[in-house]
Design a protein that fits this description.
The protein has 606 residues and is α/β, with parallel strands linked by helices. It has two domains: 346 residues, Up-down Bundle (ABC transporter transmembrane region fold); 236 residues, P-loop containing nucleotide triphosphate hydrolases (Rossmann fold, 3-Layer(aba) Sandwich). The protein contains 23 helices and ten strands. The strands form two sheets. The protein has a six-stranded mixed sheet with strand order 6-7-8-3-9-10, with helices on both faces. β1 and β2 form a beta hairpin. It starts with a helix and ends with a helix.
Length: 606
Amino acid sequence: MNYFKEILKYAKPYRRFGVLNIFFNILYALFAALSFASLIPMLDVLFDKTKSITVEPDWPGITKLLDYLTDYMGWYITTQVDGGKETALIVVIALVIILFFLKNIFGYLAMYFIAFLRNGILRDIRNDLYSKIVNLPISYYSEKRKGDVIARTSSDVLQIQNSFLSILELIVKEPLNIIFSLAFMLMISVKLTIFMLLFLPISGFLISLIGKKLKRQSGKVQKEQGIFLSLLEETLSGLKVIKGFNAEDRLTDTFKESTERYNKFAIQLNHRKGLASPTSEFLGILVIGILLWFGGRMVLVENAIDGTKFITFMLFAYGILTPAKALSKASYGVKEGNASAERVLEILKTKNEIADRAGAVSIPAFATAVKVNDVTFSYEEEPVLKNFSLDIPKGTSIALVGQSGSGKSTIANLLTRFYDVEKGTITIDGKNIKDVTLKSLRDQIAIVTQDSILFNDTIATNVALSDKNATEEQVINALKIANAWEFVKDLPQGIHTNIGDSGNKLSGGQKQRLSIARAVLKNAPILILDEATSALDTESERLVQDALEKVMQNRTSIVIAHRLSTIQNADNIVVMNKGEIAEQGTHAELIAMKGLYNGLVGLQSL
C-alpha cells in the first residue's frame, strides 16, 4: 500500500497554500524553460548567425513558439537596436538575466507557500499521534514496548518529514520543469526528442530495481531503533536496580547486541541509498552521450538542425537530468518513507476499544452506590476475577486485601475503565459505566497509586492536574490537607518549584503527599487508594496515613492495602483469594471468624 496517499489527507486544511505553490511552480517552470530558450538568440549574436528581419513577425501559433521568438529577436536586433553587435549582445544578455531572475523569484515564492503546507501537515500528524497515544487504553501499552512507541513518535515522524513531505516540494515543480523543457525540445527537433525519450523507460526500470528493497530495509531499521530505545527507557527507569545487582555489563551487552543489529541494517540501507544517486546520474550522462552522437550527426552530416539550436537542445536535455534525478530520489524517499508512515499510521488507525458508546450519557454527581455485578475478567487466559460481586454504598470505605495477584488492583482498573469487563456489569447509581461518557465517569473518581506518578514541572502544575484554572489558594489548601504544605512552604519557590523528572528532587513520602494533594484538589466523590502507603517508611507512612484519613472523610473510598494496620477502621473489609471473595466484614468481625484475614493480621504482627 502507498501510505503517501494517507499522509496527503492531512494536506486538506492547507489546500490554498498548495494551490499557490502550484501556480508559482508553473511560472517557475515556464521561465526556467524560457531562460534556456533565450540562449538561442544570444548564441546567434555570438556566432553572427542572427537573422536580419526587417518586418515584425506574425504570431504563428504555440507549436512554432521557438521560431517566433527567434524571428522576433532577429527583427528587434535588426530594427530596434542601435550600436551594432556589442549592443545587441548586451540586450540579449539582459534578457537572459531578467528571465533567470524571474525564474528564481517564482521558485522562492513556490517554496515559501509550500513551507506552510509541509510543516502544517507535520504538526497535525504529531498532534494526532500524541492525542491517540494518550487516549488509547492501558491494555495497548501492555503489549507494546514504550521505546517502540517513542521511536514512532520521534524518528518515524522525522523520517516522514525527510521523505514524504520533502516530496511535496518536488511533486509539481520537477514534472513541470520536465514538461516545459520537453515542449521546447519538441519545438527544436521532434526527431531528436523522440530519440531521447526512448531511453527514459530503460533508465526508469533500472532505477526502480534499487528502490524496491528500500522499504523493507528501512522497516528493519525503524523496528530495531524501537528496541534499543525501549532498552534505554528501561535502563533509565531501573538504574538503581541495575547498579545494585552489578548488572551494568549484562545490560550493556544486550544494548550492544541491539545497536549491532541496527548498525547492520542501517549500513545495508545506506548502501542502497548511496547507489541510487550515482546510478541515476550515470544513466543520465549515458543518455546525454548518446544524444551528442545522434544530434551531432544531424548537425554535421544531415544538416537537419542548426548548431545553436542543437547546443540549446543539449542544455535542455541536461537540464531535464536534475528534475529527473530529483524525482528518482523522491521515489526512493517514498519507498523508505512508506515503512515509517506504516508504523505511524498503525498507531493512528488503532481502534480504541475503550471509548464512548453511541448515545453515552454524562452522569451527574455520584449519589447512591457503586455495584460490581457478577464480574469476570482476565488479562490473558487465566481469569483474575471470577463472578465477583460487591456493593459500595455512598460514603462508605471499602478495603480490599489479599495476596498479590488476587485481583485487588483489577477492580480499580475496571471501575475507572482502564480495562473493560468481559462478563457482568459495574454500575454507578444504577447506570452501567459502559453507557456513560468516560469523562463524566472519571470526573467521579480520584486515584492515589503506590507509585507516585509526578511530572517534570512545578508543584502547582502537578497538584492542579485536573484543573488548569485552579488558584494558588486552592493548591495551597490541598497541600495543607495532604500534610504537604509543611515542606512545600520551605522550598525556594514554594508551589512554583520544579520537582524534576518523576519528582526525583523529593523524598518518597513527599511525592506521595503531593499525589494525595492532587486527589484532594480534584474533589471527586469516589477515592481509590491503591497501596498508597506500602512503599513508605514509618514516619512518612504516619504523615501520609493522617493525610489519607482527612481526604477520606465524607467520601466513598476503595482502599487496596497490604498493610492491614491502615484499614482497620474501614466499614467493610473484603478479603480476596484467587479472584473471589473469601471473607468480608468489619475488622472485629473478621478477627472473630479466625479465618484467612485473622491469619494475615497474625503474620503482619510478627
